[in-house]
Every structure is written in structure tokens, then in C-alpha cells.
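During the reporting period the student researcher (J.K.) took over the structure-prediction task from the postdoctoral fellow and processed the backlog of single-chain submissions. One of the processed entries is reproduced below for the supervisory committee.
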Amino acid sequence: MKICYLSSSIVPSMSANSLQVMKMCDAFAEAGHTVTLYCRNSPFDDSNDYQFYDVKNSFRIRKVQYPQIRGLGNLFFVWKINQDIKRNPLPDIFYGREASSLLSVLRLGRPVYWESHGLPSNNFRFSLIKKLLKNKYFHSLIAVNSFLKNEYLRLFPWLDEGKIKVIPNASNISQKKVKKDISLEYFQNLHFKVGYVGSIFPGKAMEIILPLATRFPEIDFYILGGVQSDIDSWREKGYHKNVIYLGFIAHSDKGNYYQFFDVLIAPYQREIGIYGGKKMKSDWLSPLKIFEYMSQGKAIIASDFPSIREILDDQKDCLLCNPDDLKSWENALRKLMYNSKLRHSLGKKIYQKFINNYTLEKRVKKILD
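J.K. obtained the following C-alpha cells:
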């Protein structure tokens, strides 16, 4: 089947949405489909996109200019995509996360699959989505958790529930790597090691990690992610010699670092910052980080939100903590630090759950079934 994936993600970039889009295109291609991705071009266009995201060169990437003109940039972007699509044989389906791009191709008469990671932020977005969902060529809404499904049914009560599939995010099966040229200077001590992988925007992690670092000077906390300005900002809030900022690590290299961590942590707050200076509520989170962590077979401590509980099972395959209660994070960390048997048991169980339910291969199958 020919799949045209329409995305407004910048490729390459450090954003989680661009990673998710590239991984999904790779997974569609691995399943035997012919895939073309339309996305925004990047100021870092001299890089190898496939290598940057650690995916195979198995699908086409068509980069489209997105002018930074308020109110016109997206219109031009969508128009350029349509112009290119019309010059080529039509795909069997259109797929994407961006409602406006998908809305523009409905007139081409192909089934449209829309994957949603959030709710409409204003009346204009609401009207776009309403038009998309009412069109006869709208095929499926892929909601990444039950909260989103229920909210869309509330916002659009006429929507056929049978057209909504709740399919969380997913990840690749981990390929553990050991590169001889990786710097080991940060990992040579015998301290207990806690890893956080991802951006360090407000609400993502540091509000919990920095106080934990103060309370546990014997533990080293490794931060894989964040641009230098974000790192400097958090350092200004308090220096901790046991917080090691490694900065952004290429997706193709992250597997070299996970092996050193005893525990992985995902301390989301109730509202988190995302790329572009925007914010989103944690109610509808389906974070890539969680699935990537699961693929490593390590013990996980994460924030206790309903959307997270759809994936993780507290005390059985992870430890969940109240995002507002630092003491609960202290207790969970202390529990894992002094109980290696529990760490290994949680890691083993979470990995098995991942293999059974949350690989990209399984996600693609659920979407297209």
C-alpha cells in the first residue's frame, strides 16, 4: 500500500514530534508499505536525516518550505504539499498528525487517517477538525489515550465512536550498543545512577530532579537532552555536582548511554512545556520517553497520571509518584536504590509488556487493521 504521511514537523530537529513521525514512517515502510513523508525543512539540512533519527533509508522525504509569515506560513506550506502531491500518482491513504494538511487533501478522494496527540487549542482549530471529521473520506481518528477519545466524543457527540482507535505511542525494540569511542568519564564511579532522557523544558523533569539531587548527594543524576541555554537556565537555579548535563544526544547514540543507568525517571508535572514555547496539559500525554524507557528493560519511576496508568502498572512493573509530592519520589528512589532484586524484577516485567504490546511493528498493525 502507498502511504502519504503529512506532517508539520521540522526534520531534522530535536523535537519529540519529529522523532515520532520519522519512527512511524520507518515502521510503515518496514511493514512493506511504500511511504512518502512531507515535512518542514530545517536549518540543519546538511545532516543525514535517516542517520540522525536512527531509521533506515526506506521511505522518501519531501521537505517543504514553511515561511515565517504570521497567518500565511501554514497556508503556503499546505499549498506546496498539494502541488507536489498532484504531480505524482495518488497514494492509497493519507496519514498525519496535522489536521489542516489532511483537510486539504480530502478532495483527492483517498481515505484519511488522523493521529491526535492533543485537543483543539482555539475555535479555528476546532472548526478545522470538525470539517475533517465530517468528511466522507475521513477514515479513522487515532487517539493516543482514552482521555483524548472521550474528549473528542464530548466535543463532537455526532462522531461515530467506531472510527476512533485508542493506540498509544510505541518504540523500537532496543538495539543495545557499545561504542568504543564513547566517553566513559562520567560513568566510571560506583555511584547509583539515575537517567533522564528528553528535553528539559519547564514541567518536564527538572522541578523534581534538582530537589532529589539535593536530598541524595550519593546518587548521580544524568540529563540526556536540552540545548545549552536551557541547561544554563537550570544551573542558575542551583548548582549540583551530582547532576550531570550531557546535552542533546543523537537518537542513534542514545543506546550507548542507557546501559549505565540503574533507574530511569520521567517526572512530568501537570503542565509541561513543548517546542515553540507552548504548553500542554499532562492529561493527554503518551510520551515517547516512556516507551523508549520500557524498551531498555530498566526500572522506571514516573508521574502518576491517568494516561500513564493506561500503560504502566504501579508496583507491578514500575513505581508511580504524585507529581506534586516530592516525598513520594524520595521514597520510590530510596526503595529502588536499596533493592536490586526489585529493580531487576520491574525492569524484566516492563520489557515483557513492551514486547507484547508497544513495539512500533504492533502499533502499525493496529492502525491499519
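The committee noted the following: The chain is about 35% helix and 20% strand.
J.K. will present the remaining backlog at the next meeting.
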